[in-house]
Amino acid sequence: MNDVILRLSGIDPQSELAKVIAKRADIFELTQKTHDAALRPADPGGLSHAMRAAIACRIASLNDDAAFRDHFGAILDQAAPDETERQVSDLDYRASDPRISALIRHADLVAANPRAASGRDIELLRQAGIVEADIVRLSELVAFVSYQIRVVAGLRLMRQSA
Description:
Elements (H helix, E strand, L loop, with lengths): L2 H7 L6 H7 L2 H15 L9 H14 L3 H13 L4 H6 L9 H15 L6 H9 L4 H30 L1
């Protein structure tokens, strides 16, 4: 089973709930593979591993999830971030670089209020010099991290109810 999901949901690997979840191990294995691909892909394009982890930290903070914030923070530390990448993880950080500012703005918007995102928001990324492939990479990252946080939130509720 997915170590990140089990660990962050607080489910005892020997519990009855873990046994039930294990019946869908394929989904959790795919989730782990997606986690690795989203945060540490072989070709990160214009979003370094550190930037990806920093954005994931922001999303965890927006969701008020300390366990995920710590998890992504550890990945950020392993990625040897530069000062800007480290600052991106802080919700109070306001970037002066238009590209970084656009990345932050878009990630925050889509993570916190996806219904409010529109084609105009994609255009703002383009205007900041972010290429199409990196817009896709950013979108994949935000979508996956949001999904992962929601899965764990659901499992935590199940654990509390068990």
